[in-house]
Amino acid sequence: MVHQHTILDWLGQHVFIALDVHKRSWVVAIVTEQTDFKTFTQPPEVRLLVSYLHRHFPGATYHCVYEAGYCGYWICEQLRAHGIDCIVINPADVPTTDKEKKHKTNKVDARKLARSLRNGELVPLYLPSRVALEDRTLVRSRQMFVSKQTRSKNQIKALLSFYGITLPEDMTDRYWSRRYIAWLESLSLQSPSGTMTLKTLLEELAHLRKSILGTTRAICLLARTETYASNVAYLTTISGISTLVAMILLTEIITLDRFHSLDHLACFVGLVPGERSSGDERTMTGMTERKNRHLRWILTECAWVAIRYDESLALDFNTLCRRMPKNQAIVRIARKILNRVRFVLKHQQPCIVLKAA
Prior knowledge:
The chain is of the alpha/beta class. It folds into three domains: 14-118, ATPase, nucleotide binding domain (Nucleotidyltransferase, domain 5, 2-Layer Sandwich), CATH 3.30.420.40; 131-223; 229-276 and 285-347, no CATH class. Helices cover 52% and strands 13% of the residues. The strands form two sheets. The protein has a five-stranded mixed beta sheet with strand order 3-2-1-4-5. It has a two-stranded antiparallel ribbon with strand order 6-7. Strand 1 and strand 2 form a beta hairpin. Helix 5 (130-162) packs across helix 9, helix 9 packs antiparallel against helix 11 and helix 11 (293-309) packs across helix 13 (326-347).
């Protein structure tokens, strides 16, 4: 009996791998330069995928892709550490046929990604360093706690309104002062159940206030480090931008090198109009739905503050309000503030607004 033993050598050839990532499993689609090779399911472990590739495609150049989602960028980092060229993409930017929309499965999604990667149709997301990502997580956690605090306050107000409990005439719930919170803590409802509910809500609020204070202090300390100190100093010379806002901007943008123009940066933030045009018809649809929700929100809030202190922005706002609603005019002001942000970061100098004599 003759035994044939073939030595595989994929040197100089390219293999394209797409992952449909889930918590308990990965669907892997592999295609070569000319053929669709195989689609299979494996446990969610990088080492198993790397072992499979080295076993079946030794010597090949590997290219991998998966969609951004709950799992972050750690898969990409580990694959790159094993010498595999890996990118992460926006799920909304994957070319999709009508058939793939109507018959959507994990295997279909993985094969679609693999073919798009082979055809060069995918635009990778910018991947920050692990340290930059963790700094961003700290800043975002404060925003999360603030949102939870607002919800907690609304729940307490709703409870008081439901049972017809009114505030004393000499007290307001606008600022949630120590005196107001002490009054809330002194309240007793008609049953132990109601009193316990109010007490639990107040304890949750106290915990959130403590978390906000802790993260705020940590962010302020981070702003004084060598990585951020100079840029924070430049950004805070812009009207409407505080240290916390500057840290939101810096941790979301990371570096201006990823944006080739102001328009590119504005597209990332979401301060550009949407458009639906066909033939000679051109329809603008207001602000685009594609955005960085953290940046667009905070720049709009900064714009409302800036028009109260910056004479040139106030003049621009008043002029714009003559021909459009205020909520549209403020978006233009936010775009101007973004322009100033880009200028001070690019030229590493403070913002100086010249005033008329």
